Structure formats: C-alpha cells, structure tokens
Amino acid sequence: MVALVVPLSLAFAAGTALLQLQSELPGASALITISVFGLLVLAGYAWLPVGGGRLLAAIACCACAGFVLAALRAEARMADRLAVALEGQDLVVEGKIDAMPQAIERGTSFSFEIAKAPDGVPSRLMLSWYADSRRGVPELHAGQHWRFTVRLKRPWASINPHGTDFEAWMLGEGLGASGHVRTSLGSSLLDAGPGGLGDRIECLRESVRERFASVLADSPWRGTLVALAIGDQRGVTREQWTLFIRSGVVHLISISGLHIVVWSMLAGGIVGAAWRRVPSCVLRVPVQQMAALAGFLAAAGYCALAGWGVPAQRSLTMLGVAAWSILGSRKVDTGPTLAVALVLVLLRDPWAVFGRGFWLSFGAVALLVYSTHQGRPRSVWRSWLRGQSAIGIGLMPPLIAFTGQVSLVAPLANAVAIPCVSYLVLPAVLLFAVTGWPPAAWFAAFAFEWLARLLEWLATPEWVVWRQAAAPAPLIVAGLLGSLILLLPRGVPGRLAGLALILPLLFWRVPRPMHGAFELTLLDVGQGLAAHVRTAGHDLLFDTGPAYGRSSDAGQRIIVPYLRGEGIARLDGLIVSHQDSDHSGGAGSVLADVGADWLMGALPPTSYLRSTATLQRECRRGETWNWDGVRFEILHPMPGAQVTRDGNATSCVMRVSVPGSSVLLTADIPSKVERELAQSGLLHHEEVVVVPHHGSRTSSSAEFIAAVSPETVLIPVGYRSRFGHPHPDVVERYAASGAQIQRNDRDGAIRLQIDGDGRHWIYWRDVMHRYWRTPWAEVPPAMAVDPGGR
Q: Are 316 and 300 in contact (CB under 8 A)?
C-alpha cells in the first residue's frame, strides 16, 4: 500500500492543477458527474485484479478527488468577492489588520479582515493608506481593530506575456478586493490590542523586523537577514535579487526546507544533549525521541515565524512524519513522506500550484530522493556532489520555464553559500530573533557581507547566466524527462540520449516575422504606454511605461520580464517619446537590465536619460530608417523644437509601415499638434492607430480622426483610470468613424502581426483566460463605454 502513496498523491495534485487551468468553473452537474465517476471507480477497485487495473482505478479516483475538492474551494472563494455595484463607492467597514503591515510609497499597505461592512463586501481586503499634504499615516500594527471609509475595486491587474498574475495571487490569498483608505473621511482605532494566537504571531514577526531595523540600521543586508528570519522579502533590493539570481543562490534567501531542517536539527541536538545529562528523564523518554519531538516543535515555531510558505509547510510535514516514525519506532521512506506533504499542502491551499516556489521546493527534494535511489556513493563528498548535480540538472527545465535563465556558477556558489548561510548566518539570525542579542545580528551581517563579496566576484562576468526564451510546454516536459534520463546511474544503456531531449529546449528561439513583416505588442502597463516592435532581425521599444514609485516601475515589473521571455538579450533601439513619467518611468530599468544600441527621444536637457545610453539620437521629423523591409519614420516634433519638461506638445510620433499596412504611434500629442499634422499632409489612411494621450478629452479631435481614418485603434489605458481615460466622447468619435476599438484594460496586452496574409490579433486576456478573471461584461457601465468594440 505504501508503494501506491506516490502515484496517488501525484494524481491528486494533477487533478488540483487541472482545475486551476480552467477558463470557467465547472457547473454543479459537471461536478456531480465527476464525483459519481470517482465513486464508481472506487467501488470497482475491490473487484479488479491486483495489478495495473487497480492502480489506474486508484489514480483516476484520486485525480477526480483533487479536481472536485479544488473546484468546491474555488466556488466559495469566487463567491467572496466585491459586488459590482460597490466598486468605486465610499464604504464604511470595520475589522482588524490580520498581517504585518508593509511600508509602500507614501504610505502603508496591509490586509484587512472584515468584521462589519455593507452586503457585498468580501471578508478580506488588500488596503493601502496614503499620506496626504495635511495628515500622515498613523502607526499600524497587526491585530489592531479599525473603522475605515474605503474605496474598493474588484481584482483586476495587468495581463502580459511572461508576467506575474496578480489576480491569481489575490485569489490564492483570499483577497476579494483591493482599495485605499479615504483619509479625508476619517478613521477610528477601535481596539489596539492583538486578539488570538495568529495576531500575536504577526505582532512577534513585526517586532523582529523592527528589531533588525534598529540594530542594523546601516547594513545593506538588513533586508536579506529579515527575509531569513521571518520570510519578509520586501527589504531585499532589486540589485541584491539580481546578485542572488545570477549566482544561483536565490533559494537560500527564502525560507527554504534546508533552513527549517537545520534549525530543527540544532534545537533537537541541544535538547537531546541536555536530556541525556538527566538520567531520570532518559528513563522516562529516550533521548532520540525527545530530540525528535523538540526538533519538530522548534521547526513548527520557525514556520509560524516565517509566515507558513509552501517550503515551510512541506518541510514541517516531512519533519512531522519523521518525528512520528521515531516516536513509534517505525520506518518511513522519504518518497511517501514527500507525497503526503504534497497532498496536505494542496488540501490546505489548492492555489499553491500558482507559485514557482511550490514546484521548485517539491521538485528539489524529489530530485534528491531520485538521485539517492540510483545507488549510494561511497563518501559524503560524492553524495553531496550527486545531490547538487541532480538539483542543477533536474531543475534546469522548470527554472527556464519560470525565470528564463540558469546560473552556470550555481554549483560553485552553493558549495560556499549553503554551509555559510546554514551554519553561520542562519543560527545567528535566529538567535537574534529569539533573544534580541545585538552581537548575533552584527555577526550575521558581517558573515553575509563577506559571502556577498564572493558572490559578486562569481556573478560579475556576463557568461555566468544562460538566458533562454520562454519555451513551449512540450519542450519543458521533454527537457525534464531528458534530465531524469541523464541522471540515471552510469552504465544504463541510452543514458546520454537524455541530451537529445534537453538540447531543443536550450536552443529554442521565439519565431520572428519574415522579411517585410513586423509585430507590434502593446503591453498592458496601466496608466502609460509601452510598445514593442519586432521585425525579422531587430527589436524596438517605444516608451517604457510608468514609474509606480521610487523603487518600482513598469520596466522592472513588466517590460524586462517580457523581453527576457521573448528571448531579447538587447534592444536595437529605444524611443522615449517624452519626459512624462507614465512614458519614461521604466526606461532606467530597461537600459540597466537589457540595454539598447541607441536611445532616441524628445527629452529636455535636464533628463537623466541623456547620460545613460551610449548613443543618443534626437527624435525629430525627417528621421527614417529601414529594418528588414519595414520602414520607420518620425513625423513629430519639428527639427529645432524646444523641448520642455511638460513635453506633450513635443511628443514623438512614429509610423511603422510595410506596403499596404501601417501603424501610427502618437504618444501624448494634444489636439493642436493633431491639427498641425493633419494640415501638413504627412498623415494618410492608417490601418492601426495608438490613440493620442490615452483617449483624453483634449485629444483625438474630429479633424485628426478624419485625417487618419483608422480601421482599428488601440487605447493604452489602465483599469478604472483615475484620469477618466478614455473619455466617452473620444470613444464615441472613433466608433462613429467605423474604427474597431481595442483597449488594454479590457484585452490585456495586445499583439498585432502584420505579414503577407494580412493582420492577426492576439489578446492576452483571452490567451490567459482563467475562471478567476472578472468578465468585461460585469464592469460598471461608466467604465465599459465601448461601442464598436470587438
């Protein structure tokens, strides 16, 4: 029976994952049918002969169970969402802050558990409280009970190729709406004290974070040590994450199973050594059993302090089974233990499959188990080397799928980093977290500083990272199968044939347009603009989206992951149409992480971008170039135009064209510039137009629309734009002209492919449609004015 645990657990996990891929939740009749089928298979299990038939029946039953249980949980979670009629309304709510608040730009972000609210408000919210010119944000702590006036919106986020799915994250966290506190309407603190055990744990985590901030105020590695102690990674800078990723040690910065096991062994060893010195205690409970129990309890405490992430849940479950086997003098194999942990994690959180940590955590341990079953090495060194090789080779396909890159120096970096973090840094961090003894924090920061210097030396060369475009799922599966074949013991016939399955994954490239054709991808960056133009051999980025704050922008969060996923190591050109932050906000991140051969823009002399690119070009009328049979031409501004900081009037206007088709990108030009362009004779029938200024009321004049007479217009606009974009009058003018209207808030990222066969459209909200997406038909009418839409 134990031998069945692994395949049955995998079947349960497959059923759970299959539900998360559905575009619509199955109805009651479908769930009843699947449940009845699973029960019939289970009933017939006893009548089948022992062998393959029984195994298939058990697998089918477990897969059905995983699918149905996940569907029932999803229905309940989807029912707990903000009512459509309440979106954008001022609502009075009461409840408590149920997790550590996080500092954000100009305020604080926190999750809020509702105790009293109007009907239609979900049970849990993600709120932000921003400071204004008259009042700041009060000190917020987990467990506090407040009365707020809030303005909420339903889960809705940007949808882009290779991007993070924020809507899926909100679903997994049980957050039915997001919004902000209406500071001007008053707020009341009802109860300042924490209530239950969960509140007290969150307060403890918060106090540990504040203690680190006080003792290590000047240390650049304070955020990393906090991440090791309590799992709060927000203090880790972007540059530090880059270092960890390039050196291949990013798993050590998260609360991993290795950390929990080390802490458990340390606590168990200390308790066991003390227990052994008291003979009367040893006579009652053997030392080994007491050490196992102490280690498990210490691990449970660490998991609670760390926030119960997937690696923590997996490790604690496995440690619990190990402790149970020691206490009962039983023998339990690692494989079934890992399988039980997999099922328990998914029963608690069926949305854990959304996270890359879920796959990498279970995958790493599974690979270690797989490698040990291939034969036992003669030495500890060989055992460690085999385990590292198994993880490095086996996790390469999923790492390429999730991140598009693999560190080539990871084995060497981990050979130093694992013992340093596990046996020097982590014990000191946990000692400080428990006791508050400052020398422990100083020692941890000192040790990590020296480790970081070594990692920087290893990660500096460009060749240390293998970058790869996001490959199709069949190549990922084939690569994973190839890696498992490659890890078979020496002497197994055909072992090297695994390379034949891995190499197509490593050398796969995104198909590019033919000569004389191009693609335009209008990324979904919210309030802003970012468009990627790809030809047969060149890549151009027009604008870089907004800055979301001092530490986050569209370049970092959306554009760079998109470019990496598309296999673009460097841009051939970057155009920043003007200085406004919603068009230039991500330029610094794009230039730092990807780079460009040249930068063109209508930028004022004071712009910081003028010192960041090696080759600068002024965006002026008359600039033209040809890439792979595709013509690029700048229509505005005029040569010699004076560029000011408020540069809408001098925004770059660019046409991309091939015989018979063209796309016009207009940035933020106002109606005055539209008239000048219409009268100049430079405008003609444009098949596709990216509308000026996001469809604002002061643009898209009737004269301009008549001059370009577009067949399709693209509106780069965010959901519930605070500026009211696009203005209903503008939408109606385009609709009256006969143009089809596409818009980022409804469609997500929009890709246009122009080739000899015509124009082909791809809408990412359709491609990535899942059951948790809010249908556009449910968007309030004021937000969905869309006559003539697709």
A: yes
Tell me 368's DSSP state. Answer: H
Cβ-based neighbour number of residue 747 at 10 Å: 23
Task: Tell me the C-alpha distance between 255 and 584, whole Å.
Answer: 36
How far, in Å, CA of 41 to CA of 389, rounded? 41
Measured CA to CA, the distance from residue 513 to residue 738 in angstroms comes to 29
Report in angstroms the alpha-carbon separations of 367 from 187, 767, 788. Answer: 52, 32, 53
| Helix residue ranges, H only, 22-136 | 28-45, 52-79
The structure's pTM equals 0.89
SS3 104: strand
For residues 362 and 339, give the distance between their C-alpha atoms in angstroms, rounded to a whole number. 9
CA distance 404 to 562: 10
In sequence order, the β-bridge partners of residue 30 are none
Mind giving me the DSSP string for 463-519? GGEEE-PPPPHHHHHHHHHHHHHHTSPTT-TTGGGHHHHHHHHHT-----PPTT-EE
Please say whether the beta carbons of 96 and 57 come within 8 A: no
Output phi, psi for 760, to 5 deg: -125, 135
**Alpha-helical segments (H) within 174-309:** 197-215, 222-230, 238-247, 257-276, 279-284, 287-306
Residues 6+ apart with CB under 8 A from 440: 428, 429, 431, 432
Phi, psi torsion values for 688, nearest 5 degrees: -135, 135
Burial 326-345 (b: 16+ CB within 10 A, else e): bbeeeebebbbbbbbbbbbb
Cα–Cα dist 752/380, whole Å: 56
632: exposed, middle or buried (Cβ count in 10 Å: 0-12, 13-18, 19+):
buried
Q: Which has the closest alpha carbon to 179: 280, 88, 268, 105?
A: 88
Quote the tokens at residue 593.
């992480």
Q: Which residues pair with 541 in a beta bridge?
A: 532, 574
Residue 10, Cβ neighbours under 10 Å: how many?
A: 18
pLDDT in tens, 53-101: 778 888 899 999 999 999 999 999 999 999 988 998 999 999 999 988 9
Angle value at C-alpha 351, between 350 and 354, nearest 5 degrees: 135
Contacts with 138 (C-beta within 8 Å, 6 or more apart), sequence order: 189
pLDDT of residue 566: 94
Q: Among the residues of 122-237, which ranges form H helices?
A: 166-173, 197-215, 222-230
443, 379 contact by CB (below 8 A):
no
Name the burial class of residue 426, with classes exposed (0-12), middle (13-18) and buried (19+) by CB atoms within 10 angstroms of its CB: buried
Tens digit of pLDDT for each residue in 446-498? 999 999 999 999 999 988 988 889 889 899 999 999 998 888 877 778 788 88
Contacts of residue 330, Cβ cutoff 8 Å, sequence gap at least 6 = 324
Q: What's the CA gap between 454 and 756, in Å, rounded?
A: 53
Partners of 92 in the β-ladder: 149
